[in-house]
What we know:
This protein is mainly alpha-helical. The chain is 69% helix and 6% strand. It has a two-stranded parallel sheet with strand order 1-2.
Amino acid sequence: MPVAVPRAGFTVLDARSQKRMKRYGLTLADFFPGEEALRQKIASTLAPPEVGAVMTRTASAVDGAVDQLRAALTSFDPSLAKALGLSARKIHHQLSRIEGKVGREALRRDARAARDARSLNGLIYPERHLQERIYSFLPLLAKHGMDLAARVYEAIEPCGGEHQVLVA
């Protein structure tokens, strides 16, 4: 019986793409849910920090007020405390919707970020597949030089089961 050895999986990035990923705080896993989720992740980094801080404080204030009300209602009527739980979830849902709208507005304001999301998604996770499943190695050789194969072999663990990222 032949021995089954997992093959090395890797994604090749250029320095510019790596810089954009760092700017937006992206990891390889951020690409798997799809381009829309990637845009949302980038949008969350574009919103002004003070808006995020106010949203966090608001959520904390709501939690504190709900906890106080729950304590008062539990001693008065436990069934009302249960109903409060549903209302609290609805409030948090609405707050998260507002947070999403802030992120989408920030993305609209920064067209470059939208282009970056589209470009990075096309490079790293094209057509919802890993780069190595869609793109041939030949264009990568043309772009990054004929020594790319040697650099890939040096940089990755050939028998490793984890997907690795190589900046060429």
